[in-house]
Amino acid sequence: MQISNEDYEQFKPLLFSIAYRMLGSIVEAEDVVQETFLKAYQVNEQQVVNKKAYLCKMVTNRCLDELKSVRLKREQYIGPWNPEPLLFGKIDRTDPSEMLLQKEGISIAFLRMMEHLAPDERAVLLLREVFEFSYEEIANFIEKKEDNCRKILSRAKQKILRIENESLAYEENKSLINRFIHAFQSQNTETILKLITEDVTLFSDGGGKINAAIRPILSRAHVLSYLYGVIKKAPEGVYFDIENVNYQPAIVFYLDGKVHSILSFYICHNQINEMYLTLNPDKLPLL
């Protein structure tokens, strides 16, 4: 298949968007996209009716293959596993490549919830609900019947039903996080009780490379106690700011000009339901 520079620039954002959502890893997604383009050069042009659809099929199936080995890695992973955060600057709502990423299904909460899905459920849900492919196209991508794809989608949506209530209103969420920071710093218990659910859970991802909780932290009291302990033990010189992470506001901590850790949130009904503290240096963006 002939792939021009224009083709590469046009299709790469779409393929990365699919792969990143499928795998929850920037590095793995980039590798899959590069492998897809390399293999595309070896495909007979006469086999290709629609170049975009063919590339999407290739990247989807490459991700399905990758998920088989990824599941083993997740099982052997030390402590909770958080998706690799995408740290952005100012949101450009006119850039076509960024608009693909801005679509629903990129928040850390959504990507983490995807871990509860089987690979084919993950593929069908994303291709249908996020990228709006037809059932006919999806059936061709994953080589299953259309009716089967509909059943797979229904099953997948039931498994992640809770995430449908996630707030994706950026400015409202940023305001809530700011209130949480101020209440946390001043130990304003009354405000904190309003902002965090009683059964809030914190997933601390150090990957065995950085000291982190090896099990999820459950309940408001335990989560707050853990966060106070983390702040107390933080190296001198650490500072933070609210940044655009996966197109949602998150607290990014810096040390010596580098990203030290990222705290992301699952916000629902104006309350924080889950927190995702990513400390593993392999998952933190380089500035």
From TrEMBL:
Residues in RNA polymerase sigma-70 region domain copies: 8-69
The RNA polymerase sigma factor 70 region 4 type domain, residue ranges: 109-160
GO process terms (BP): DNA-templated transcription initiation
One Gene Ontology molecular-function label: DNA binding
InterPro entries, per the entry: ECF_Sigma-70_Domain, NTF2-like_dom_sf, RNA_pol_sigma-70_dom, RNA_pol_sigma-70_ECF, RNA_pol_sigma70_r2, RNA_pol_sigma70_r4_t2, RNA_pol_sigma_r2, RNA_pol_sigma_r3/r4-like
Gene3D superfamilies on file: 1.10.1740.10, 3.10.450.50, Winged helix-like DNA-binding domain superfamily/Winged helix DNA-binding domain
Coiled coil: none
Record-linked PANTHER family: ECF RNA POLYMERASE SIGMA FACTOR SIGJ, SIGMA 19 FACTOR
NCBIfam families named in the record: PRK09636.1, sigma70-ECF, SigX4
Quaternary structure and partners: Interacts transiently with the RNA polymerase catalytic core formed by RpoA, RpoB, RpoC and RpoZ (2 alpha, 1 beta, 1 beta' and 1 omega subunit) to form the RNA polymerase holoenzyme that can initiate transcription.
Protein's UniProt name: RNA polymerase sigma-70 factor, ECF subfamily
Species assigned in the record: Litchfieldia salsa
Lineage, broadest ranks: Bacteria, Bacillati, Bacillota, Bacilli, Bacillales
